[in-house]
Amino acid sequence: MDEDVLKSILDAHHRWGQPGSGGRRADFTDADLRGADLRGADLRDASLREADLTGANLDGADLSNANLTGAILRDASMRRVIMFETDCGHADFRGADLTGADLSHADLWRCNMRDCIISPESLHQALSCRI
Description:
2 helices, globular, little secondary structure, Pectate Lyase C-like
């Protein structure tokens, strides 16, 4: 995805939470976001279903209540990411770095987390977690 288009969607998503601002919820369904720089991005409630985020940088991003069903996050950097109540069913996290991630109440049903970097503390309150 073009960097300017990505920035425009993120800006509109930020405004979406403010009444009368003309923003709209980010929809990255099936998007090609390989290698995207999403550090610190506010992606709360965004749709990233089936998106390809291979090698993306999501360090410090807020993905609370986002939909990551079937997303590909191979080798993504996701340090200190917030994924409170995020739906990650069938997502592919192989090789991702989830150091310091907050996965409280995240649904990790049938995720592939082989070779990812993650602490037991991060998984403590996740739902449907199988490693």
